[in-house]
Write a structure and sequence with these properties.
CATH class of the largest domain: Alpha Beta
Largest sheet: 7 strands, mixed
Mean pLDDT: 97
Bound molecules: 2-aminohexanedioic acid
Number of strands: 23
């Protein structure tokens, strides 16, 4: 297949494609080559986008929801038609292997059709009223202008989790995508334009967190911020939103574990660990970075896992035979290297990997060898902090109870998994694991879009992306009372 060329990137504000003077290079993490320049906008562009969104939202909210949904159906079909193009471009800018890129685009397509269906639901509630000849109901209403800030690791899927429910429920959106992966945002905006979304309902402003992100979060006309990204940035955003009484939804990562019990199917567990720890080179919020293993199966698990890790092919994800792609950039690579050093100093035993790969065709890419530490104790930093790379820490435990305790000992709470064939352990684990997502006999990744995505503790602030629950972020509840008695009836007082 001929190499796809990314088009010149421009902001999308009020239905117009606008150039910005300042730009910076977007590099392909697999090769180090420049793919395209991304605009570096300022607060002024954010202001224009918010103004456009505010104007457009008034009309958009009046369009019946089933008609708003028609746009999303068209978006879904266009994404489907362009699935291969989008996937190739996604691999070029993000590095994830093509199979996973196709999976991510599919997540976006699924989200389009799922949320389009909400156009005919958006259920409210009718309730009995206290008084005679009185009708009571509660209804979801749009909030207004939504600011969306998305990360580079799932540049299209996460954007669809946020923008689709926001748009179908009658809001307008200003979206700041990650500067590392702007092509997906540009392509999605083009699709929305072609699908006939009225101008101003979706606006894309490219630029840094310091300028564009800050301006968006601080803008007084933006009523909701939906953010996925790092814990540090999330906390800063929450502080601003707290002061402004702005609703904020935060999704900020995990320290997800696979638990392998003594009765588990070990080969299945190895497959689960491989896929969720080294897929996307460990750069998922849901990636497995801890394996909590019963000491009785530790040796077998280590041997079989190491053997399978050796079979992993590492390289440019556009090559269909590659299983592990590059790390997003130098900073990501440096962070992983730092944690390898920390792990060694903490006394963990390095069984495989632990270094960058810079030979042959990999010379200019940011590759890192799949890494396994063993004899890790749960208090070590490598077992507590998010590394965001292909690094797994194996923690031996003596019992099911200890496994649960170790799983729950981290400050994050996104995803967890247990491999066991004991039905009692299955049910106890799904109850006692304290994460927002729990898997049984599967790895920690692979959440489906019609279920709520998010976690407990330091992972977020209680809101959920995707699933019907995402609507709670983008709508307010309105209580409506209609008195048809023809007289003034006083609630609480005129009850006999
Ligand atoms: C993320 O890493 O932020 O469950 C999203 C999964 C994917 C989404 C991950 N469906 O791994």
């Amino acid at each position: 297949m001929a190499k796809l060329q990314a088009e010149k990137l421009r902001n999308f504000i009020n239905g117009e494609w606008q150039d910005v003077a300042r730009t910076t290079a977007v590099l392909n993490p697999a090769t180090g080559e420049e793919i395209v320049q991304v605009p570096l906008s300022s607060g002024e562009q954010v202001d224009k986008a918010v103004f456009a969104a505010k104007n457009a939202q008034k009309e958009w909210a009046l369009v019946p929801a089933p008609q708003r949904a028609e746009v999303l159906y068209r978006v879904g079909y266009l994404m489907k038609e362009r699935k291969e193009r989008l996937s190739q471009l996604l691999t070029s800018e993000n590095g994830k292997v093509i199979e996973e890129a196709r999976g991510e685009v599919q997540e976006g397509i699924d989200m389009a059709f799922y949320m389009a269906g909400e156009g005919r639901r958006l259920f409210g509630q009718t309730t009995p009223a206290e008084l005679k000849d009185k009708f009571a109901m509660s209804q979801r209403v749009p909030v207004g202008v939504i600011g969306i800030i998305t990360p580079w690791n799932f540049p299209i899927a996460i954007a669809t989790w946020k923008s689709f429910p926001a748009i179908v429920s009658g809001n307008a959106v200003v979206w700041k995508p990650a500067t590392e992966t702007p092509i997906m945002a540009f392509e999605l905006a083009k699709i929305f334009e072609e699908a006939g979304l009225p101008k101003g309902v979706l606006n894309v402003v490219f630029g840094s967190g310091n300028e564009v992100g800050n301006a968006l979060v601080n803008h007084e006309k933006v009523q909701v911020i939906s953010f996925t990204g790092s814990n540090d940035v999330g906390r800063e955003i929450a502080a601003v939103c707290g002061r402004q009484l702005k609703k904020v939804s935060l999704e900020m990562g995990g320290k997800n574990a696979v638990i392998v019990m003594d009765d588990a199917d070990i080969d299945l567990a190895v497959e689960g660990i491989l896929w969720s720890a080294f897929g996307t080179s460990g750069q998922r919020c849901t990636a497995c970075s801890r394996v909590i293993t019963h000491e009785q199966v530790k040796a077998t698990l280590e041997t079989r896992l190491l053997a399978k890790m050796e079979e992993l092919t590492i390289g440019n994800g556009l090559d269909e035979t590659i299983k592990v792609g590059p790390i997003i950039n130098d900073r990501g690579l440096a962070k992983i290297e730092e944690y390898i050093q920390i792990g060694k100093e903490e006394g963990a035993k390095l069984l495989a990997g632990g270094h960058a790969l810079k030979e042959g065709a990999k010379q200019n890419g940011n590759y890192f060898a799949p890494t396994l530490f063993t004899d890790v104790s749960s208090t070590m930093r490598i077992a507590q902090e998010e590394i965001f790379g292909p690094v797994v820490s194996l923690i031996p435990v003596k019992s099911f109870e200890e496994a649960i305790e170790v799983n729950n000992s981290v400050s994050f709470g996104l995803s967890s998994s247990i491999f066991t064939n004991d039905v009692n352990r299955v049910f106890r684990a799904q109850r006692d694991l304290d994460t927002g997502i729990v898997y049984v006999n599967a790895g920690t990744t692979g959440a489906e879009i019609h279920l709520p995505f998010g976690g407990t503790k330091g992972t977020g602030n209680g809101h959920r992306d995707s699933g019907v629950q995402a609507l709670d972020v983008f709508t307010e509840w309105k209580a409506i009372y209609v008195d048809y008695s023809g007289k003034l009836q006083r609630a609480q007082i005129d009850i006999d």
